[in-house]
């Protein structure tokens, strides 16, 4: 990775936003798994997605989360849908927001895309609830 770019303001801002949205554990795993091959791609994501787009002041993290989930669901990017559903714990996006979002996906992107995303959201919420229960001593 080019050290100059990794130390840029946009990269730093993007990394901070990425950590705020996805959480330190997720970002630390991604960073520790980075190789020389995918480091330029990771830098691109941090600077462009997280630094240029997610860090803009015009929308809240909740609003960006809703739009991102809708787009990912519409495009069938299942792993990314699950990742951004998990991130709702950090963005203020509610389960009701996600329900409404996926209803829009059904109408504007198709019922099959929404059906798949709803299954992913339900499974992800169940996992989140289970993990929260374990953290609170309710195994």
Describe this structure in words.
Helix 2 (9-22) packs across helix 3 and helix 6 packs across helix 8 (111-135). The protein is mainly α and 139 residues long. It contains eight helices and no strands. Helix content is 80%, strand content 0%. The mean pLDDT is 94. It has two domains: 1-58, no CATH class; 59-139, AhpD-like, CATH 1.20.1290. It has helices spanning 3-6, 9-22, 24-32, 39-53, 61-75, 78-91, 95-109, 111-135.
List the helices and strands and how they pair.
Elements lengths: L2 H4 L2 H14 L1 H9 L6 H15 L7 H15 L2 H14 L3 H15 L1 H25 L4
Helix pairs in contact: 2-3, 2-4, 5-6, 5-7, 6-8, 7-8
Question: What amount of the residues lies in strands?
Answer: under 5%
Q: Determine the number of helices (DSSP H or I, runs of at least 4 residues).
A: 8
- What gyration radius follows from the Cα positions, in whole Å? 16 Å
The H/E string reads HHHHHHHH
Instruction: Give the strand tally.
Output: 0
Average pLDDT across residues?
Answer: 94
How helical, in percent, are the residues? over 70%
Overall morphology = globular
Terminal residue distance: 42 Å
Q: Give a quick account of the main beta sheet: strands, pairing sense, barrel closure.
A: none
CATH superfamily of the largest domain: AhpD-like
Name the CATH class of the largest domain. Answer: Mainly Alpha
